[in-house]
Amino acid sequence: MNVLIMTPVGRTADGAQIDYFPQRWSGRSGAYKVTTFYPFSLGYLSACLKQRTPCAVRLVDANYYGVDVDEYVELVVDLRPEVLVVEIDAIIFERQLEVFRRLRQRLPHLCIIACGPSPSAEPQRTLQHGADFVAIGEFEESITRFIAGGCRTPVPGIYPLPRAELVDIEALPLPEDEDIQRRDYCRLYGSEYREVELWATRGCPVMCNFCVVTNVYYGRANFRTRSVESVIAEIRYLQARIPQLEGIFFNEEAHNFNRRYVHALCRGLIDAGLHRELRFNCMGNYDTLDAETLELMRAAGYYKVRMGLESLEADVMKQISKSGRLKADQRKLVEVLRLCRELGIKVYATLSVGTIGASYQQDLRSLEAVRALHDEGYIQEFSLSINTPLPGTPFHARAEREGWLRAGAGFDGAYGAVLDLPGYPAADIERAFAYGTQLREAINRDNLARGVRYSSYDRDWCAPVYATTGRRPGEGLR
Ligand code: SF4
């Protein structure tokens, strides 16, 4: 069986490219890509299918190349797969459904399996618009089993059966590195070394009301780890594959959630001598960090910790997660920021405006607090989004119930609010976002002036990404 795995259409209706991260949120990036995330769920799926089935499998990242609708359809028609698998999120859902409808006409026998957040949230609609099957939630194992059975035998996780058990991440092979190569996903915002992404853990117990990966992919609070040995082996593999490699970005949900695991990983990195060879940065939470953990992370080569804060206002933080973890402990946050500053570990905060329970004044106060923390050396960078109620999340369900959603609004956390919160209309959310964006850009300019070297501006390292700008249809993909 010929299986083609693809990311969705790579451009919005107005021609903008998309920084695609369906597990988190995707945003329009304009004429060129600002950040290139490796499509890791599809990468793992491709590796599983190649290892565990006799299928001829190919993974094409249409998003990376900014492939638009017409080129997408012609590409699939040319490759003539028997099965097409596409992971889709809200920013591009309607355009990808258009592709499916056109493919139905051109390739009547093609079997289309849709997965990812939008099909998981709207399986019936996805089926009505051209998909044959929908995989709900985390899909590497369910789609592999389904295809191994010839797409005939129902398996958990393939709609209408309920979602499958969570994936055993230790049992996954290394993600695809032939059809697409991890080295090419090198433009990573905020990274200071020539880094690629790696996933040592999966899951997060916090269950924020807007979070796609925990609510839609996993469906419940969870936290899974890989063995330290397998992580070290993957790093060694990447070093051999990528001679210019200077660092690793553990781009997970909650890298440091399990204190014991982080300690074991740090000791493993040190024992392997990797603390002298590479620098590490990670996406995590602050509530499990303490002096001992941060000292060990520093010794292991961690130079930056990215923390999902969303807001620095206690009342707002409490609204985002009812789990009692992370978002509402300002005393702990201050302690962790102080420790990081003492140890020389940089802090990158992720913030958003327009969360449930926020007001314009609170969002501005939160942004001003970040400015002060930056000026005092506690936070070195931050990213900012408009908190967007993506389908399948509790935030979206509530926004629908309460009638907050604006008619015809898209789902782009980088441009434009899609809802009017009580007492906080979309226009004010956008004003707060514009204010925060100016602040973020000023901080970045300040960092550059102080000599910070972001690898996303490194033209040699990012040459594969720059090469996609101005690409003509048909180039680079076949
Ligand atoms: S902290 Fe919240 S947004 Fe981040 S991964 Fe966990 S649940 Fe999702």
From TrEMBL:
Superkingdom per UniProt: Bacteria
SUPFAM superfamilies in the cross-refs: Inosine monophosphate dehydrogenase (IMPDH) (SSF51412), Radical SAM enzymes (SSF102114)
Keywords of the record: Iron, Iron-sulfur, Metal-binding, Methyltransferase, S-adenosyl-L-methionine, Transferase
All residue ranges annotated as the Radical SAM core domain in the record: 188-425
Name of the molecule in the record: Radical SAM superfamily enzyme YgiQ (UPF0313 family)
Native source organism of the sequence: Plasticicumulans acidivorans
Coiled-coil ranges from the UniProt annotation: none
Annotated GO CC locations: cytosol
PROSITE patterns: RADICAL_SAM
Extent of the signal sequence: none
Any single Pfam family the record assigns to this protein: B12-binding
Molecular function terms, GO-annotated: 4 iron, 4 sulfur cluster binding; catalytic activity; cobalamin binding; metal ion binding
Cofactor(s) the protein requires to work: [4Fe-4S] cluster
